[in-house]
Amino acid sequence: MPKRGNQKSFIGDAMRQAGGARSLPKNAPIAIVGAGFAGLAAASRLISLGYNDVTIFEATNRTGGRVYPIAFADGYIQLGAEYINGRKNPIYEIARNLNVLEADNDEEEDDDPLENGILAAGDCTVSQNDRNAFTEFASPLMDKYESMAGQGDQTRSIGQLYSQDYQRFLSNQRATDKKSVYDALTRLYRSSYEAEWSADWNDLSLLNYDQFDTGDSESEEHSMNKMGYKAVLDFISTNVSRDKIKLNSRVTNIDYSGNEVKIRLESGLQPKTFQAVIVTASLGHLKKFARSLFTPQLSRTKLTAIDTLGFGSIGKLFLVYNQPWWSQNTETINILPVDGCTTNSPATDKLFTTFHPMAWNNNVLQGWLSGSAPAAIDAMSDDQVKTAVTGVFRRMLRNNTIPEPTRILRNKWTTDPLFGGTYSYISVAAAKNGASFDQIATPIVVNGQAKVLFAGEATHPDVYQTTIGAYISGRREADRLFLGNW
Ligand SMILES: Cc1cc2nc3c(=O)[nH]c(=O)nc-3n(C[C@H](O)[C@H](O)[C@H](O)COP(=O)(O)OP(=O)(O)OC[C@H]3O[C@@H](n4cnc5c(N)ncnc54)[C@H](O)[C@@H]3O)c2cc1C
């Protein structure tokens, strides 16, 4: 997940004034679409402001959305969000108060795959010289690209910038026989951007480095203990009673053409009408369904923003074994298939990049997927993934005794129509046409009243992508209704 941060501060949530003249009356029925962090934060805030008629429609049979903790051993495996970006934000505060932050995570993390961990390259040997030469070239690049953001052409992609630098590096090296090794290292290096930003680096505009902003001076990412986001999810749901949440209730249409908003579910039109609805469906869901979800149709500006802002994917695989087969001091296993090196290395070997033992359970290896890999792996059955992953370990670590995992735990984010991927980013097209998260966030006002409001990570201008952006945006829209602020 993203590990960035600079100076701007995000929207404060302290709105303690009395409601404004246009604010919604306390008994107004309000609907919320989605029980992820944005939906739950909106509901909780509305309830604490005195609104008593709040209904959340959630399509799945659980709350949390892209926060998806599942019980495992004596803790929770996080199939979705896992880390907290920075400290100056309410999610960090909540986690700190709940005592679920890892004790030793105050340091800026160093997850550079080039410097850390095993390089598993099969029948090839990557010499220390080659590794050093590549590391010396690549390691300063992220800082260089960050410093380029905010000046010059922001529509350039990270992939484009890298490709220019890489060509220069190759010609300086004057060792054409090493190209396949450097290409393999490039694949690994690329994955560190793509797993952070959930974007193909050829579509990841430089503008992200200017705009993404946690408000912290250092970019840092905090991990939590084995309860993690389960504890945070429970906490933010505290004052939202279960009778306010309609599970298994997928909204297929929001009709705001009349005085009251009508909600249609898959099961049919809801008899109850609402004075306002807060929509928190993911950008991935809106990309697929925005044109049928709203009556009348959304404005052209909003649709263009939905169509052109990026929504990509990362993937997480939790491989469960009876006992660890990796040595106790293993930090990271980086998979490095070098073209032409290892016999019988199938194309699926290149889907895998980085694995590490899970922090709180010795029998679980956690894998990260990026680029095109999440969609490719989501299309495979668990048995196929077990075979592919065991094969790649055996080939790349040259050890045929590595066992198959007994279980694979994962969620198929790319194929689920309720998500359509993992989180948003500013694509090259959006940087070019000026599409912004603010355009998605702008409420639809009818006859002087905000009728349809938008929250969710892809409506936060600075901390999009994150649970932080989702949470703040939910509270923002609740406050908007309370203050009549539109
Ligand atoms: C694998 C993964 C790893 C991540 N890692 C991190 C991380 O480490 N740190 C971090 O900060 N963030 C991370 N994120 C991103 C973070 O999880 C999200 O930004 C955040 O949880 C989004 O919350 P939300 O409320 O905006 O949307 P969601 O969580 O998507 O909630 C929207 C809800 O709406 C429901 N819904 C959608 N359509 C409809 C409909 N038509 N009718 C009814 N209900 C509907 C969905 O089922 C969902 O429950 C990660 C995400 C993923 C998937």
Automatic annotation (TrEMBL):
The keyword Ubl conjugation does not apply. Keywords: Cytoplasm, FAD, Flavoprotein, Oxidoreductase. Gene3D superfamilies: 3.90.660.10, FAD/NAD(P)-binding domain. Its main location: cytoplasm. Its cofactor is FAD. Residues 37-481 form the Amine oxidase domain. InterPro entries: Amino_oxidase, FAD/NAD-bd_sf, Flavin_monoamine_oxidase. One of its GO terms (molecular function) is polyamine oxidase activity. One of its GO terms (cellular component) is cytoplasm. It is found in: Cytoplasm. Belongs to the flavin monoamine oxidase family. This is Amine oxidase domain-containing protein. It comes from Plectus sambesii.
